[in-house]
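thought: fold this chain, then report.
action: predict
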Amino acid sequence: MNEPGLPTPEQLQQKLNEFMHSHFGDKVSVAAVPHTQPEASEPEPDSVNDRTKIFEFSYTPRDIKRHLDRFVIKQEAAKRVLSIAVCDHYNHARFVERNRAKQNETIEYAKQNVILIGPTGVGKTYLVKHIAELIGVPFVKADATKFSETGYVGGDVEDLVRELVQKANGDVALAEHGIIYIDEVDKIATSGNLIGRDVSGRGVQTTLLKLMEETEVPLRSQSDIQSQIQAVMEFQKRGKVQRESINTRHILFIVSGAFDRLKEIIGRRVRESSIGFAAEPGSAMEDSEMFQKVTTRDLIDYGMEPEFIGRLPVRVICEPLIADDLFEIMKRSEGSILHQYERAFHAYGIEASFEDNALRRIAEMAAQENTGARSLLTICERLLRNFKYELPGSGVTSLRVSGRLIDEPDAVLKELLKSGHAERGSALTVSARQFVRRFSEKHGVTVTFEDGAVERLVERCLAEDINMQELCERLFKDYQFGLQLIQKNHGKDSFVIGADAVEDPDGVLSRWVVASYRDEEKPPVINPDV
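observation:
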């Protein structure tokens, strides 16, 4: 029996269907949910989080760095710092979980959230992604620019925590040990001359503060229609709504950004501190050396909130990549872009290989783009785009990317296509002979192609870009019945197909059949020239 003021299940379903219809048309509807009274014997868990589950972690910093070395080239200091921070974080999480029963023991720990600073394309995301894969925790990545302060238009930073649960397939305990990676965090730096509330800069930083320490995040967002509908339906079924949440205490937060203007701030501070009688002239510092001198004050001057930077005690500086580094990435990284191109060409039966002299040229060209490893894809796509379009189906079975291909791509492509047409022509000739052999065995007649017919068939296959089997089946689809009829009329069981039959297969077959009905002393010669 419904309490006063509450709708019946039928009324609720009707209202929900009306709402869905008005917003989504007839594509979405709400199925009826049987109304049942709450079961008195059904235990209500204190929390959906399984607090008895202990997260297992047994890696050393050396283990993690060794794994990262397989995928990320250079960034030696960054890999070491990240490996140590990750081990400290998860060893503490394991200690806390194993000692949870000791209620009176206070465990002090400064959470080691990380800020990665470095130019684009140097492997910041790659580092974090492969750490998460190694230790087996869910990993969520997002750009800071898509979020706004909770309650305002835009993405909600708490959605990142909820997404961890999805990545963990609903395992909240595992999600509570996940990694949240927020890129382009430098884009939410505040501006000193801003008037009014900054909901996408300072607001996002402020909202992230409580997440990066410890808080309970409800698994159902107030702005998510689907979650709210589920809550209403759960209320109808159980008589109350389960308040589910995820704790962020052991979630590791890693943020990153290029911080392009930061070197100017650092340089100005360094120059000001060196002014004086005792100052010694010095050479200009490289960008990587400049970033190594970053201080909390520099980041605050950049526009980051002091409290926000305070929640990111571990600072990792990533170095820019030069041509030699890009060469090593292509040669040694297990995630090399070359594997992607090898698979792309292999899908068309083409084996691609890359010579070292070509890779060095590609690396030099990519270094000039100033976008790190991402530029490798840009350069390779520019050089190989026409090859990816022209070579499939051309008869070419191998592609060697050499220094000459880099210098003269059009000439190399033309040569490959010429040789490929010859190779494909030979393969198509064999395929034509195989077709008539199978046709003869299947239908009890002997059929052969004249040389001129084979040449014309090959030309059509190349022009129409289809295989020989498909073309022959289309051209000679009625020959089974026509030839068997001729065989019945005159006992003729051997037929020769000429070039004319390739051009007009139905017309030639019709003439053959008509000829088979003529009252002649002997069967006619079945030939396209008749």
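thought: worth noting. The first strand starts at residue 114 and ends at 117.
final: tokens above.
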